[in-house]
């Protein structure tokens, strides 16, 4: 936290520099504080900030950075002094959100495990079907090979028989006129 040792008042540009924000952002924050009922001291038509004002702004900035409250809510909490209650409430809220997120993550993990198991079972089933089809194809190929060999053997027998018959039926040239 910034410390202002004496009761010196600082102008907007000095305070913005010490808080690490732009001058325009500080003016915007002034508007928010005005809306919740807190005004800063004016000297010669300039806004001036005291030590307590700087502390309020620091609390406001840290609350706004640490929570997801709006600017107006943060300013209201700081001005009304509810910031200590807000810390306990934020802790309860964060704990509840953490537990809820943890439970949702557990449910998601369970659902994913079920899907993985389901897909694993489907893959095993597909492997079994594929193995059965592979065995059927092998059996079919053996059957086809066996039938082709048998056909070729029978065909060769028929060709030999025809050659024998033809040779037996062929008449010698001198027996051409004989029946």
Automatic annotation (TrEMBL):
**Which residue intervals define the domain DUF3967 in the entry?**
147-177
Residues making up the signal peptide according to the UniProt record: none
SUPFAM superfamilies in the cross-refs: Putative DNA-binding domain
Per the record, the domain of life is Bacteria
Where are the annotated coiled coils located? 91-150
Name the keywords, alphabetized.
Coiled coil
Q: Which InterPro entries match?
A: DNA-bd_dom_put_sf, DUF3967, MerR-type_HTH_dom
Q: Where is the HTH merR-type domain?
A: 13-75
Know the name of this protein? DUF3967 domain-containing protein
Please report the organism this UniProt entry assigns to the protein: Ectobacillus funiculus
């Amino acid at each position: 936290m910034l410390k202002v040792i004496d009761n010196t008042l600082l102008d907007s540009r000095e305070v913005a520099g010490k808080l690490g924000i732009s001058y325009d952002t500080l003016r915007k924050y002034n508007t928010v504080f005005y809306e919740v009922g807190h005004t800063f001291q004016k000297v010669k038509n300039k806004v001036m900030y005291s030590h307590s004002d700087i502390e309020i702004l620091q609390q406001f900035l840290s609350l706004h950075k640490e929570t997801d409250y709006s600017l107006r809510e943060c300013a209201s909490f700081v001005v009304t002094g509810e910031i200590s209650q807000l810390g306990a409430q934020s802790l309860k809220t964060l704990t509840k959100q953490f537990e809820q997120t943890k439970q949702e993550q557990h449910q998601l993990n369970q659902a994913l495990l079920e899907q993985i198991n389901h897909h694993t079972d489907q893959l095993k089933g597909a492997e079994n079907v594929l193995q059965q089809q592979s065995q059927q194809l092998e059996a079919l190929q053996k059957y086809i090979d066996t039938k082709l060999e048998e056909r070729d053997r029978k065909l060769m027998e028929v060709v030999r028989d025809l050659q024998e018959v033809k040779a037996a039926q062929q008449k010698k040239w001198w027996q051409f006129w004989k029946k």
